[in-house]
Every structure is written in structure tokens, then in C-alpha cells.
Amino acid sequence: MEKLTQEIRKTAKEILEKGQANVVIGWEKGSAWYISTPVFIDKAEDVERLVWDEYCVNNLAKYLLDYKTVEGKVAIFVKGCDARGVNRLIQDKQVDREKVLIVGLSCPGMKDEKKAKELGKNAEIPLVKKCQECRYPEPIIFDIFLGEKGKKEPAKGKDFSDIKAIEKMSSDEKYDFFSENYDRCLRCYACRNVCPACSCRECIFDQSKSGWLGKANNASNNMFFGITRALHVAGRCIECGECERVCPVNIPIMLLNKKIIQDIDTLFGDYDAGLDPEGKLPLGGFEYSDPEEFM
Amino acid sequence: MLVIQKTKIKEILDTLAKEYKVIVPAKDGDTSKFIPYGDNTEMLLEENVQLPPKDVFFPQTEKMYKFKSKKNTMEIENLPIEGGKQLIFGIRSCDMKSLDCLDQVFLTKGTDEFYKEKRDKTALIALSCTKPKETCFCTSMGLDPQKAVGADVQAYDLGDKIGFEAITEQGKKIIASIEGQLSEESVVVPKFGEFKINVDVEGVPEKLKGMFESPMWDDISRKCLNCGACTYVCPTCHCFDISQEVRGEDGVKYRCWDSCMFGEYTQMAGGHNPRPTKKERVRNRFMHKLNYFVERYNMLLCTGCGRCINVCPVNMDITAIIKQVKEAE
Amino acid sequence: MSINEVPQNWEPKILVFACNWCTYAGADLTGLGRLQYPPNIRILKVPCSGRVNPQFVVKAFQRGIDGVLVAGCHPGDCHYSTGNYFTRRRFLIMNRMMEYIGIEPQRMQNKWISAAEAPKFQQVITEVTEEIRALGPNRKLRDDQWKN
């Protein structure tokens, strides 16, 4: 990865020097060995800050929204999941494809920073959950590709075993499980703010005056938030798992998103968000032949 | 020093529970926080918990009063402020200092009754730290991890035992009530381990005064997601919003935590927002912690607990920012 | 009061989202035809069943409703041609979601009821009411901290 880091810096330098983009979004080393964090480079002399290692876990796609109304091109480094995020934003017409220069990297799977913090430098650090389940480690959209492909064996199929386990519970057990989890929710909205599918300019949860959701924190309100958000990103969630990773109180948010993904697959046919920037969204349309249960 | 085996700590808490509602650091689902002590509480005495104890005194959502609106009149009814005598066991130096900060805000210039009621009725047994976490930096903020400010009793982590030392009059009474269960031993308090993060804050508040327009803020804030995680896990962040819930004629006014990281926080009725982008919001957060509060109350609004570093999705590290301020021209 | 206790004289409260063109007219016809159905429903008229956003449903449960019925034109009959096809997709997902988080499936139902189907309206409302009566009051998702 050291070699690839050098290549990344060289490419970023070229991009900036040739004026192919005004800013390059990548990763730099954070304040500990187990943290790599987003960085924005706009001067060629700063490219040394860029790194590529097994802790570049942040999905950078969301940052493209910050440049929506800014003149000029943006270059962005993408792993498999970032690429799907970029695709999603293009599909929703949030980002102009012409305005982004995408540099693809083959993802070897990122390591779990929380575990790394606990286990220390010498231990074997496991991959983050989202990377263990990842089926698209290769970027599916890019203008430039660096390094070699095939750094990680993609997961075979979608793993819905955790969803199936919950479905087997009784109604009361299910409710207890989710309400106990959402009771902890601080409503810090980190999950929403990191999500590449959450691209509304004005979010309903930022408008407490509208009366939909008060600011009071309780399990009921927090679940209203959780359910509404899950349904809002239904068919658009790219399974990058960032929501779950950033949650300061470790709520298993992906259990809601994956449930919807599972149901879309069984009801309307297999669908993976963020693969096709031109494709139709499963909940943005319909088929006359959809299952009929409401007769 | 009066000591007890760690394995027998529950006996002491049971005794204290007869007089106080005892609150302890414990596991709560997949996180940890200060919760009322009960038979099934999974106490955490090895390291500090992930959420601060501020909600014991300043709950995330707190009802203030009820009102009833009829045609031309409105009746207001005060609600009893919740809380009897309580005791927090196992609060660390950083969180004790945070109470000092909150006291400045809620008790010195005007009194916040809701806070005062709970603060006055809460006894505090602080527990010393022996092993700093990866993100701890309280010593850099001028604290002693083994001697908390404002505690009634200072407890010491002695490995397999816990030692107690009364500080205040109330502390002496607490110790007297559990003295029978403690034994007198001469002990050596183990030194605390090495801190991974060390930062020099000397001169930073003064320097920040002239840095409001610094281009540094553009750079720092770019990766910020503007979520409220840092402010909600911060033991000293104390901003709140007042709102209401209405059902027919009846309504309840309540206050709840708010975060300067949110756009709605400074949104004005007319539509103008004086902190329109994340740059202004990030700047405000760090200026408040390191400059405004120092100017107003002569103390930093950061206690070095490291919780914000721990939860930030994009590694906004307050210690790195302090260093950046020091290095800035 | 314990969570499972049913208060005396408890009657289920059911919210019906009825589309303006079919189900609402169907309800009208039910009344005109003097067909009796349980008085436990509150009808909320919407321009199209496609107008019903999932958050309307969650909000209803928050505010103390025991069951929700979303009803509209049969597929093919939508006044706006295809509105109800969107409803169908959305609620196939939504209903499963509600069941998944622990709301009994009887509490969140959808039915197609045309303007001519007064007997069906009567029958559906009766059935839904009885199903929810059997389940008892809903306390899940309810936001009742403002009561005291």
C-alpha cells in the first residue's frame, strides 16, 4: 500500500498541476495509527498529506455535495463503496458527472478502528463489518484507476442471517429489541450526515417547527427518526455501513436498511443501489406485475 | 486508608442505596453510561464510561412546566422538579471538573433551579484513574486523574481493592455510614500510566482571541460532517433549546439538549443564519471551549476526557487543533 | 397501569387514510346504503393513496392510534392513472418494516376499496376493528410522556 500511496500522491499532484480539478478529496493520517481521515488538497505541494492504508474507512462520496454549487472540477479517490456512493449521487442528479474526476482504488477491506484501539498495534485486527460483507470492493465507476484489481475476494451473496433471526422473534420481542436500541439514540444525526443517500438540502429533522418530530429525546421520537430515515433511503442505501460505524452509541442501524434491501430483492427482484447511474430506483417506480397483497 | 476488596463493592453500594439513589458507571446495551444502581447493573470500574454524567443533572429532555390554554386564558402549572437524595459512585476527575464548568453556567450568574435542585441533592464519590485510555488527555488540561475537584469522597483504585478518603463534611458522613464494612490498611496509591496524548494549552486562549478570521478554520472544518456527536458526548457542552408539546388544550414546555453543530441552532425567525456553514459552527465550538469560556469564567471548557475524539466519525481532534493553534502564525 | 392491561370500556381507535376518488366515495355509499360498521374509525381523506407517506403512519401510532388502514382505488382505477401502483410498492415495504420492528401486522393494513364497494368497505372496517380489538390497545411507538 506504501507504493500505492506514492502513486496516489503523484496522481493528485498531476491533477492539481494540470488543473484537471481544483481540489482532491482523499485520506490522510489521523491522530492515531488506527485512524485515517478525509483530507482536501488544493495545492500541489500538499499532496504529501495523502495516504492509502487499511484504515481509509470513511466514505468520501458525501463530500461531493459540499461542492455542488462551487465552480470547477473536484477529484475524488474512491474505494468500491465510495464509488457506489458517487454513482448514487449522480443518479439522483445531486452531482454532475462532468464535474467529478474519479480516481478508483481496489479496496483490500478496511480494518476496524474500534477493535484496533482495544487490541493494540501488534494484534491481528479484523476487518470492519461492512467490509467483511462487501460484494463490490472494486470501484465500478472511475476515470483513472490506480494499482491492481482483486485485492479482496468479494463476499458471495448478501447475508441476511441477522435479519432472519429478528424476523423469527415475537412482535413484543422485536419491539423490545428495537426500542431498547433506539432509547440510547442521542439524535446527533451522525448517521444521516455521513450517509451518501441522505442528500436533501433541507432535512425534515432539521425543522422541528414543522411539527413532525419534536426535539424531545425518547424512544418513540427516536424510532420515528430511525424508521423514517430507513424508509427514505429505501432502494438508495448502498450498504456502505457508515451510519452504523459512526453511531456514538452503537445502534445497529443497518438492521433496518438491510431488512428493506432484503424485501426489495424478494418482492421486486434483486437490486443493488449505486451500480447504474442511469437506472430506475425500485421505489421510484413500479411494475404492473408487482405482488398484490391488498385485495 | 480505609479500603474494601473490589469484589465486595456491591455490599457498600447496597448500604448506600438505603439512603441514596445510587448512580454508577455501567454498561448500557452496546454503550456505557451512568445509570441507577440495581441488582443486575453491570458496573464498569476499569475505565471511564462512554457517555458523561451530565444528564444526571441536566437531562437530555426535561419538562419545565405545564400549561392549559382555554379561550382567553392560560393556566400555568409548575411541575415538581424530579429527584431526591442521590449519590454518584465512580465519577472520574475529568467528569468532576465538568461539573465545575456546568456550575459556572447554571449557578453563578443567575441560578438554574432545575440544575441546582439535582446538584444540591447529589453526593459525589470520585474514583481515581490508573490507566489512561487511548484518547485521554486530562493532565494536559491541568487535572489530576487521582484527585478530583469538588468530590465529597475521593476513592482510589488500588488494583484489587478500593480505598476511600473523605474530603467534605458530607463525605465524612458517607464514610461513617459504611465504615463498618471497610478495613484500615496502609496502602500505596499506584501511579497512573502514561498518557498517549500530551498537549500544551498554555497561551492558546489568548492567542485564539486574535484568530477569529484565521484561514485555519476553513481548513479544519472541511471534513466536519456537522453532526452533534461531539457535543452530545461532551461532559461540558450545555446548550439547550426550549420547546413544547401540545395535545388539545394541554401543553408541556420542555428543554432539551441542542448542538451548535446544527444549522437550525442559529437559524433566526426571519430566515437569516449568522452561522451559515460548517466553518462558522466548527469555529464556534472550539472558540467556546478554548476562548470564550475562559474569558467569562476563567477556566477551559474542556476537561480532557477524550470522548469527542473517540466518537468523531472524521477524527476532528481537539488536541490536534490546539497544536495547530499553537503553530499558527 | 401495567402495559398489558386493557382499560375498562376501551374501544380501538383506527385511522383510515381514504383516497378521495374511490374509498372515500365508497365510505359515503356505505352510509347512504345504511350499511352499519363499527364507529371506531376516523377517516382522513387524501387525494390519492399515493399521498400517504410512511411517516404519517408512524406519527399516528405515536399519537395513540391502535391501527392504521390505508385504502385507495384498485390497481388500474387510479384517478391519477398510476398513483396506487406507487402506494403498492411503498406499502409492501412499509408493512414489512412495521412488522419487523414489532408492530402486529393487523395494525398496519392496506386495502383496495372502490367507490362502488360499499359492502366491502363495511366488511373491511368490521374485520379490521375486530382484529385490533382482539389485540388490545397499542402502546408500541406511543409517545405518552406528555400525559401527566
Please characterize this protein's 3D structure.
- The complex is a heterotrimer of chains A (295), B (329) and C (148).
- Chain A has 295 residues and is α/β, with parallel strands linked by helices.
- Chain A has 2 domains: 2-146, no CATH class; 161-284, no CATH class.
- Chain A has helices at residues 2-17, 80-91, 113-119, 129-132, 161-167, 171-183, 190-194, 219-232, 242-246, 254-268, and strands at 23-29, 36-41, 74-78, 100-105, 144-146.
- Chain A has a 5-stranded mixed beta sheet with strand order 2-1-3-4-5.
- In chain A, strand 1 (23-29) and strand 2 (36-41) form a beta hairpin.
- In chain A, helix 6 (171-183) crosses helix 8.
- Chain A is globular, with a radius of gyration of 20 Å.
- The mean pLDDT of chain A is 94.
- Chain B is of the alpha+beta class and 329 residues long.
- Chain B has one domain (2-327).
- In chain B, the strands form 2 sheets. In chain B, strands 3-2-6-7-8-9-1-10 form an 8-stranded mixed beta sheet.
- In chain B, strand 8 (153-157) and strand 9 (161-166) form a beta hairpin.
- With 148 residues, chain C is of the alpha/beta class.
- Chain C has a single domain, classed as Rossmann fold, CATH 3.40.50.
- Chain C has a 4-stranded parallel beta sheet with strand order 2-1-3-4, sandwiched between helices.
- In chain C, helix 1 (23-32) links the parallel strand 1 (14-19) and strand 2 (41-46).
- At the A-B interface, strand 2, helix 7 and helix 9 of A face helix 8, strand 11 and strand 12 of B.
Descriptive keywords:
heterotrimer; B: 329 residues; alpha+beta; 8-stranded mixed beta sheet; 4-stranded antiparallel beta sheet; 11 helices; 31% helix; C: 148 residues; alpha/beta; Rossmann fold; 4-stranded parallel beta sheet; 4 helices; globular
**Would you report the number of β strands of chain B?**
12
Strand content of chain C: 15-25%
Question: Which structural class do you get from the secondary structure elements of chain C?
Answer: alpha/beta
Largest interface: A-B, 40 and 40 residues
Which architecture of chain C does the CATH hierarchy give at level 2? 3-Layer(aba) Sandwich
Strand arrangement, major sheet of chain B: 3-2-6-7-8-9-1-10
Q: Rounded to an integer, what's the Rg of chain B over CA atoms?
A: 22 Å
Derived structural class of chain B: alpha+beta
> Spatial order of the strands in the main sheet of chain C?
2-1-3-4
Q: Please trace the helix and strand order of chain C, writing H or E for each element.
A: EHEHEHEH
Global geometry of chain B: globular
- Major β-sheet profile of chain C: 4 strands, parallel
Low-confidence stretches of chain B: none
Distance between the termini of chain C: 14 Å
